[in-house]
Amino acid sequence: MRYSASVPKPVKSAHPELYIRLKAIMPAGESEASWLRLAGVNSSFFQDLKKSGRARNDSIDKLVEAAGMTPAQFYAQDSAGSKGGEQPQERVTGTRERHLPFRSPGEIRDIPLLGTALGGPFDVSDEGEPLVVELTDVDLDDVIDYVRRPSSLIGQEDLYCVTIVGDSMKPWARDGTPAYIGPKRQPSIEDHVLVQIMKRDGNGDGRVVSALIKKLCRRTSEYVELEQYNPPLRFRIPVKDIARIHRVIPWEEIIFF
Hints:
nine-stranded antiparallel β-sheet, 434 Repressor (Amino-terminal Domain), 18% helix, Umud Fragment, subunit A, disordered N terminus, single chain
């Protein structure tokens, strides 16, 4: 079984005093070179930082953690502002912190990323005609990582993230695309959704072992009609086979400009 743990690529951070602030937390007895090795960061990190004032957030996090701090503690120092009443520096030139959806204060990483894999063909029928739909294997108890909480999602409860596998939803989503899932908001028609499919045993008890990530087209008391894009296909799933339907949060709600 192939599991995918792709997460959104970290943006870059710029700060004129970042080098000084990092040097201030360098572990005692370590040189820049040994600290970089300890953290598993590229040996040219500090040289590049001094030239450009920019650094990848994931590299900063590794250095901070190797120094015995959490990223939240490190960035909290930054968000508190500098001495003498000066305003906090902006991390990206010309862009204020409140406009950085993946760089909220404290770098919160508390949204579980569930393991997903490409499932076997999911057979549905349309008036006796068999149809093959791309299915995603998912284990709701298999948390393989925790991903960043964009500032636009602060305060929303019970979120989780999955990695879309396969190509059935191209061009909306390609293999490896991360999707934030919001269980609290009722999905509307034409929303993209994650439909948890119930597998029942001989006693009638069921558990979720797979999901369909598709577009919601219609809901009735008897069935849910979904759409996949590649190949183009509309199909229906009986309500009795569905455990839950959760909304995929659109990127335009997550990233604001």
